[in-house]
UniProtKB/TrEMBL annotation:
Keyword Methyltransferase among UniProt keywords: yes
Pfam family, one: Methyltransf_3
Enzyme class: transferase
Keyword S-adenosyl-L-methionine in annotation: yes
Domain of life from the UniProt record: Bacteria
CDD domains, A to Z: AdoMet_MTases (cd02440)
Organism: Kineococcus gynurae
PROSITE patterns per the UniProt record, alphabetical: SAM_OMT_I (PS51682)
Protein name listed in UniProt: O-methyltransferase
Length: 225
């Protein structure tokens, strides 16, 4: 069994377990029509994110890396009607497509898109949280420029509370994470964030390798103590 079988099994699981979802399919079609790269989470991973948000009883979610809002829709749907997703996106074009997809999904009212480099937009959120203008985030999903993952972990710790969940995508990269001498900034970023998570006393951590439609990769998960 190899990547083709992984993808076939993913298709089988998706067809067997998940309901048909025209809104999510439309979002992927709109992303493709707008020329966005197809680097969204898979349907099963999206369902996992939604389930995790529900399990932690999330009311507020921070996402770093919106793309066309596919994962954002999964997360927003998992919140109560007065819940809030703040999602950070560098590319204005991606943010525009995401805004349309979120509106079509009926989720625009629950989602704030912060356009710009996340490291520039996150400090404003900390001010709001410290001043009590918004509550700390119950779940953080990190899925943007991997070279900044250590910085995003630091920000996630600033912006959460005990019991919050932090999920970091793409920490396996088809095994390239083993390459300790690598210069690929993506691998360096993934290794860096895993090492930081492992060394952080404030976090209870684990990671899952996953194979499927997106190849071989994985999520790191951390619960704030
Ligand atoms: N979470 C999305 C999903 O599953 O549907 C996929 C996100 S995609 C893997 C990564 C996104 O992060 C891209 O849209 C990219 O433009 C954005 N990005 C890259 N660098 C960024 C930065 N410094 N700040 C915020 N977003 C960034």
């Amino acid at each position: 069994a190899g990547p083709e079988t992984w993808a076939e099994v993913d298709d089988y699981l998706t067809a067997t377990l998940l309901p048909e979802d025209e809104v999510l399919e439309l979002a992927l079609d709109e992303n493709a029509a707008a020329g966005l790269p197809a680097i969204d989470v898979s349907p099963l991973q999206g369902a996992l994110l939604g389930m995790l948000a529900r399990l932690v009883g999330a009311r507020t979610v921070l996402e770093i890396g919106t793309l066309g809002g596919y994962s954002t829709i999964h997360l927003a749907r998992a919140l109560p009607a007065d819940g809030r997703v703040v999602t950070c996106e560098y590319e204005p074009r991606h943010a525009e497509v995401a805004a349309r997809n979120l509106a079509a999904a009926g989720m625009a009212g629950r989602v704030e898109i912060r356009v710009g480099a996340a490291l520039d937009t996150l400090p404003g959120l900390r001010e709001d949280v410290s001043a009590g203008r918004r509550p700390p985030f119950d779940l953080v999903f990190v899925d943007a420029d991997k070279q900044n993952n250590v910085n995003y972990l630091t920000w996630a710790l600033e912006l959460t509370r005990p019991g919050s969940l932090i999920v970091v995508d793409n920490v396996v990269r088809a095994g390239r994470v083993l390459d300790e001498s690598g210069t690929d900034p993506v691998v360096v970023g993934s290794r860096g964030v895993l090492e930081a998570m492992g060394a952080e006393d404030r976090l209870e951590v684990t990671a899952l390798q996953m194979v499927g439609a997106k190849g071989w990769d994985g999520f790191a998960l951390a619960r704030v103590r």
